[in-house]
Amino acid sequence: MGSHVSKQVEKRKAISTERKVLVDLEGSSGETYPGSDYRPSDRKNWMAGLNPEKLHINQVVWPGTHDSATNKIGIPMITRPFAQCQSLSIYRQLCVGTRVLDVRVQEDRRICHGILTTYSVDVVIQDLKKFLSETQSEIVILEIRTEFGHDDPPEFDKYLEEQLGEYLIHQDDNVFGKTIAELLPKRVICVWKPRKSPAPKHGSPLWSAGYLKDNWIDTDLPSTKFENNMKHLSEQPPVSSRKFFYRVENTVTPQADNPIVCVKPVTNRIHGYARLFIAQCFSKGCADKLQIFSTDFIDEDFVEACVGLTQARVEGKA
Question: For this UniProt entry, which residues form the secretion signal (predicted)?
Answer without folding.
Answer: none
